[in-house]
From TrEMBL:
Keywords for this protein: Signal
Species this chain originates from: Engystomops pustulosus
Keyword Transferase: no
Database matches in PANTHER family: N-ACETYLGLUCOSAMINYL-PHOSPHATIDYLINOSITOL DE-N-ACETYLASE, N-ACETYLGLUCOSAMINYL-PHOSPHATIDYLINOSITOL DE-N-ACETYLASE-RELATED
Name this polypeptide is given: N-acetylglucosaminylphosphatidylinositol deacetylase
E.C. number: 3.5.1.89
Enzyme class at the top of the EC tree: hydrolase
A single cellular component GO annotation: endoplasmic reticulum
Keyword Ribonucleoprotein: no
Family: Belongs to the PIGL family.
Pfam families assigned: PIG-L
Molecular function as annotated in GO: N-acetylglucosaminylphosphatidylinositol deacetylase activity
Length: 184
């Protein structure tokens, strides 16, 4: 009887661990063969851990040199300076070196749920970063910004525009939050 109970406990533990591992790093790793320089494109400090932590862990565990481009300081409550530091600390906890974290602090890209960022400006800044870092995979929000935040949606529209207009470097791939399993 004790042995049966023990096997049952082990089976449940194995199932839980397997499910967790699959959710965190299994499926994503298989979807990203040959990626050299992935970029996580976010709007605010904390987006990385709130929306993309499993993706980050997958890439970092796969020994990929993931970089992060954050397009604002997240200054909606006048806490931009603190949030800048928190972004670096959060990324470090997730396995991303401070040197691989870039933050844009531009007055025309305010942290606001009601402001759509200028597509031309945003696209230009993102494209510059992609070329500078030789990025071959961009991961960002979907068309609804996951949470509906206007700044998140602006990122989707900017990267979509770059893709549609053929400005992305040859071979660069986009993945967004919702359609992570398929090309956008
Ligand atoms: Zn955000």
């Amino acid at each position: 009887m004790l042995a049966v109970a023990l096997v049952a406990v082990i089976t449940v533990l194995w199932w839980v661990c397997s499910s967790w591992r699959e959710a965190v790093c299994g499926r994503g790793a298989a979807l990203l063969p040959g990626v050299r320089a992935p970029l996580l494109l976010i709007a605010h400090p904390d987006d990385e851990c709130m929306f993309f932590a499993p993706t980050i862990l997958t890439l970092v565990q796969g020994q990929r040199p993931l970089s992060v481009l954050c397009c604002s300081t997240g200054n909606y409550y006048n806490q931009g300076e603190m949030r800048k530091r928190e972004l670096v600390q959060s990324c470090a906890a997730l396995g991303i070196a401070p040197s691989d974290v870039t933050l844009i602090d531009h007055s025309d890209l305010p942290d606001s749920p009601t402001v759509k960022w200028d597509e031309r400006l945003l696209s230009s800044l993102i494209l510059h970063h992609i070329k500078e870092k030789n990025v071959d995979l961009v991961i960002t929000f979907d068309e609804s910004g996951v949470s509906g935040h206007s700044n998140h949606i602006s990122l989707y529209r900017a990267i979509r525009s770059l893709h549609s207009s053929g400005q992305l470097p040859e071979g660069a791939v986009i993945r967004c939050k919702k359609c992570y399993t398929e090309p956008c």
